Every structure is written in C-alpha cells, then in structure tokens.
Amino acid sequence: MKPASTEWTYGDDGKARILVVDDDPRLLSGLASLLRSKGYEVTEAEGGRMACRILESESFDLAMLDLRMPDVDGFGVMERLSSEQPECGVIVVSGESSFSSVSRALRRGALDYIRKPFDPEELLATVDGVLGKRSLLRAHEHIRMRLEKSEELHRYIVNSSPDIVFMLDGDGHFCFVNSKIESLLGYQPTELCGRHFRHILDDRDIARGTYALKGPNISADNPRTLEVRLKTRGSRKATRHFEITAFPIDPETWPHTNHDDGKYNGREARYYGTARDVTERKEAEAFINFQAYHDLLTRLPNRALFKDRLDLAITHARRSEQKLAVMFLDLDRFKVINDTLGHAMGDRLLQAVTQRLERCLRKGDTLSRFGGDEFTLLLPSIHGYEDARQISKKLIKALRAPFQLGDHEVFVGVSIGIATYPEAGESMDQLIQNADIAMYHVKARGKDGYRFYSESMSIDTANRLSLERDLRMALERDELRVFYQPQVCSSSNRVVGLEALVRWQHPERGLLYPRDFLPLAEETKLIAKLSECVLDQACHDVGQWIREGHSDLRLAVNLSPVQVEHPRFVETLMAQLQAHGFPPQNLEIEITENVIMNDLEQISQKLRELASLGVRIAIDDFGTGYSSLNYIHRLPIHTLKVDQSFVKAIRRGEDGACIVNAIVAMAHGLKLQIVAEGVETDEQLTYLKSLGCHQVQGFFYGPARPADVIGKTLGHTPARAVAF
C-alpha cells in the first residue's frame, strides 16, 4: 500500500496526475483524450476493480469516476481512495442525477459532480478549478505544518536553554518564562506569569533590580545587564546568583496577540531577556578572594587584610582624633606541642585558640593570623590604655584553661605586646613593629603576660640589628665565656657548688652581661644554641675539677624554656653529659616555676626521667611565680632557690623576711635543700643561718669569676677576704 503523502503529487514533468474510471470504454477513452489535450497526465481504469488495482501502486492528484459500475462501483473506489490516498481529490462524472446519489457522493468526499453527457469546456473548467483549489489547500497545509514545526523547534530551544528565558510587561510582570526556572529555582512557570519579577529577587537586590528596567538608554543595541541574587522557592535564605540581560521589545515588530496556552496572561510583552546562573562562578570568585585575604586554617583575616583594615582605622582615628591599639600575640609553648604531638594536633590547637580569642573581642575588632603561632589584633576607637589592658587580661585568662587535643591535655599561654596610636607610632608599620617589640619584652620576662610599648624598649633599631648579627657571629667565633659563682655551705663555709653564668666578650663593646643580650637571644631563637654552648663549656671545666679531686662539686646551670620544652630535651642533655664524661649526679638544672606550669604533665615526666638518672632539680627564683605546694609535692625537686629580691628585703619585721621564713620552713618540711641568692651583707648571712638555710651565694663571697680564677681558689676555704 502506498503511504499517504502531504506533498503535491505532480509527475516528473510537473503535470497533474489524473485517474479516469469508467466501465464504458468509449466514454473512458474520450474523457482521457480530452484531459491529455490540456496537458494532464492521465491513467485509464476500465471499471472499479481495475481502478483499485492501480491505486495499490500509483498515486494521483485527482480521480474522475463514474458511480454506476458492475464490479466495484464509484462509491467503492471513493472508499478505497479515502483510506489509501486521502489527499487525492474526487470528481464524479456520472449519468446518475438523483438527489440521493449526488448527496451521497458529496458526503463521501467528492469535490464536484458532473452529469453525463458533459460539456467539454465545463468539464475542463471544473477540473482546473478543483485542482487549483486542492493546490491552495495543500500549500496552506504545508505552510501550517512548517509553522507548527518551527514553533515546536523554537519552543524546544527556549525550554532546553541552559538559561532562564523570560518576558515582562511594561510594569515588570512576567508574561512568559521558560521551564528552566523550575530546575534552577523551583518555580512553576504558570505560578510566576502575572506576578512582578521582584517576587523572586533577593531582598538585598530589589531596589537595584527594579531600577535597572527604568534606567535610561536601554535599547536593543544597549541592553541592561546586571548581576542579582534570586530566591529559590520555599526559602528566603537560599539564593543563587544570576546574570540578567534584558532587551526592550519594539511594539511595531512584536505581535500583540496573546499566546494560546495562557502563559502570557493577557499582558503585552515589553521586555524579553535571559537569566544565566553564575552561582558557581561567584562562589569561585568569593573563594579565591577569601584565599587572598584570609588564613584557610583559622578562617581569620591574614596579614594583607589586617594591614588594609589597620590603614583604614588609622585614617579614621586621625580624622576623628581618636585612639586605637594594635596587639601582637605570640603563643607560648606552641612549638613544643606542635613538635611533640604533630602538625595535625598543632593545627587543631590553633583553631581552638582562635575560637577562644574571638569570644573576647568587641564588634569591630579585627583578629588576624599573622603567621605560624602569631596573631595580631586591631582595637579601633578605644578611649585609652585601660580598654586595651582589659582586653589583654581577657585574652590571657581565656587561654589559661587547658586544651583537650585527643587524649592530651595541653596548656598554652600567650605573650601580648601592645602599641597605641598615636603614642607608639602613627603609621601602620610602626604600630605593628612596636607591638612586636613589646611582645618580645614579655617573652624575655617569663611569658604569659602583656606590656605596652615604650621608647625605652627600642633605643636604636639599627643597634638592635647590629647586636643580633654580632650575637650570631659570637656563637661561631667562640666569644661566649662561662663564669662561675660559688654556692657555699652556710655552716662550714665550704664551696659545694658552682652556678654557671654566661658572659659575652664582645670585640668592640667589651664584656657584656646576660641582661644585655639574653632577651635578644630569646627573641631571635638563638637561646637554645647559646645554652648548649654554655653547658658544654661548664661540663668541660667542672668535669675536670671533679676529676682532680672535688668529687662532690655540683654544677648548677640555668636552662632556657626552649630547651626544657623540646621533645628530645632529656635525650639531648644526657648525650651532652656522656660526651664530656660528666657524672649526672653532679649536675643540678635550674628551671623557673613558669616553665613548669606551662605544661605540668609533660615537664613532670621529663624531670622524673632526669631524676631517675641522678640529675638534681632546682626551682630558680622561687616565690616569684606560681608557687604551689601541689606541684612541688608532685615533682622530683631537690632544691629551692630563694629569689634575691626577698633576700635583699631582709630587715627585722619586713615582709621580705617573712617570705624567706615561710620558704625555708616549707623546704624543711618537704626535706628540700635551700639556696639563698643575692647574699651581700653579714646581716643577711646571719639571718639565713639562723633560719637553717643550707647554702648561700652572692657578692658576699664575690662576683662570678672565670674558670681560671675559680680553678686556683677551689682548694681554699672561701671567706669574704678570699678572692671570690
């Protein structure tokens, strides 16, 4: 069966193809000849049966048939045409003239009815008219189908667009929106048509979005483009970023009819445009911007953003004649925890520290991570020193409570330097540098505190840099010297120990004392190497005297917090002793209470390990730090050294004497040795003897001396007249 076609079926020569059907051969031949004379391509079928066979293999534009035929009548042929070639037109040429026959033929789809005998001219005119009409109908149908396909294609393109496509009326109400809005924002197109587009604008962009369409100079060549946030359906908080491009519609070129599916909502479109989802791009830009100005570990502003905000704050403070403060914060003992527990735990600690610090701040303050374990804090618009002082106290208190890192409980203090504007500097760099200097002065005085910057802290920056350079060279050129101060038994006046004290033989400045360079050594991280050099020299000198017959002579050395807090402290110390063949039982290490309390658990373990190897433990400057019977009872301590500030205050009835009394009594109760520092007068020595103080040291027996002097006098009983 040949399929129906919607195309016009002219033959290859462009002539219309006509099937002529009649059971009278003479009439059939005459009609076919007439039609051929007018240029039509004619096929003859003698009777309805033959016509049906021909229709199985050929297609026609027009069939002219008789109604009354013996085998298959005209109505049967028409039925076959209707089912197989519905586009083929039919003209009945018949001798039947009854109304019922004519009516039935027309109902079956005949386009015209010609009675036999026919007028040739009339018949040709009828054929020409029917074919012309069929041609117009087919052309119209063809155009309609093309338009329908075109509309389907455009609708597919619009709804398949990766962007939201919309139309608005002159007031900004939706006339049309494609289905993409459902997948991007969750709205049905039908629920938005007729509503103002501000309905989906984020509240922060409503004013800017509505003004955009009302702006001047918007045209097809100059469309309005802007970025806005659009709300997703059902949540005001969920927003996405879109780039909107809107064009005005020219009323002269736009059809004013409403769309048949109702999406135009009876409104006349005046704008059309697209909305492209740029959320991922905006988020990527925001992340890149965040990376550029924030520390990714703590999420705090980084150095660049802090300086930018400080610069703005200085400008504001200068204009409004206000004060501001810059704080430089350095965590105490962070490096030890980081080295001991690993960098992952160190990172967790920094995050926990950040959270505590942020809870202490005011709105408008800026806390930044400056690098490593260093933080900076900007306090704008303060009234004076007291505001900065109160914030500092809150920060220090916040960090004193222990941090829980997995199974470990660790303690971290903070040293804070403060520089105020304009007293401590009027520029950004000056304030940061001076706050840094003040912080290192806190470090040098025992950490875990705060200090305001003053001019005396930085006499000459160039001199400071020069001294740092010289100190580094001093370690290489062996310019450090070890002096020794005797520790004397108060009852027998016999030297029982020597405290090793460092001096620096500077090639230009002469002999420098610890107060001149130890703070700088702490600040520049050279203190560990310096202490190692001192211990090496002291082990060499005192070890030699021990081997020469002073077998009970004790070496007392001060150790820096950096050394004690190092994870391999015990291993390194014992390796040094072994290298010099120095007996551990002749060594007494002196550490301060602050070092112990920074991490009581870890320090206790190290001290117990040393004590088990024979090393003695002394608490230096006792009474000036935390002074807790609890930690003294828990630690393997052998000696308490009474700070010289209490010894100097010994007068009958003064507070200093009461403190010394209490310390000595406590030491006796705990069966600890007592060494009193800074003894300078007979009165002090007599008082200490009366209390039962075991050992003393100080200028009463002379200042600290170099090894060659000590070596010559070790055999003598020290007295004030002797060369100690």
Beta-strand residue percentage: 15-25%
Low-pLDDT stretches are: 1-9, 257-263, 716-724
CATH architecture of the largest domain: Alpha-Beta Barrel
What's the end-to-end separation, in Å?
A: 133 Å
> For the residues shown, what is the average pLDDT?
83
- Total individual domains: 4
- Radius of gyration using CA atoms only: 53 Å
CATH topology of the largest domain: TIM Barrel
Account of the protein in words:
Helices cover about 45% and strands about 20% of the residues. The relative contact order is 0.05. An 8-stranded mixed β-barrel has the order 18-19-21-22-23-24-25-26, surrounded by 4 helices. The longest helix has about 40 residues, at about 120-160. The protein folds into 4 domains: about 15-140, 3-Layer(aba) Sandwich (Rossmann fold); about 160-285, PAS domain (Beta-Lactamase, 2-Layer Sandwich), CATH 3.30.450; about 295-460, Reverse transcriptase/Diguanylate cyclase domain (Alpha-Beta Plaits, 2-Layer Sandwich); about 465-715, TIM Barrel. The protein is an alpha/beta fold and about 725 residues long. It contains 26 helices and 27 strands. Helix 11 packs antiparallel against helix 12.
Outline:
The protein has 724 residues and is of the alpha/beta class. 44% of the residues lie in helices and 22% in strands. It has 26 helices and 27 strands.
